[in-house]
Amino acid sequence: MRVLLVTGSSGGHIFPALALMARLKLSGADLLIALPKNNNSSKIMAGLDQVEYIHESRLRFNLSSKNIREAFFFLVGAWQGLRIIIKFKPDVVVGFGSLHTVSLLFWAWFFRIKTIIHEQNVVPGRANRLLAKFVDKVAVSFSQTDRYLNISQEKVILTGNPIRSDLFRMDKKKALDYFNFKEGKFNILITGGSQGSHKLNTVCSIALSGCQQKNDLQLIHISGALDFASIKQTYVQAEITHQVFDFFSDMQYAYSVADLVISRAGATTIAELQKFNLPALLIPYPFAYAHQLSNAKVLEDSGCALIICDEELSVEILREKIQLFLNDPQRLKLMRQTYTKTQSLDATVLLANEVLNLN
Question: Mind listing the domains of the chain with CATH numbers?
Answer without folding.
Answer: 2-160+345-358 (3.40.50.2000), 172-341 (3.40.50.2000)
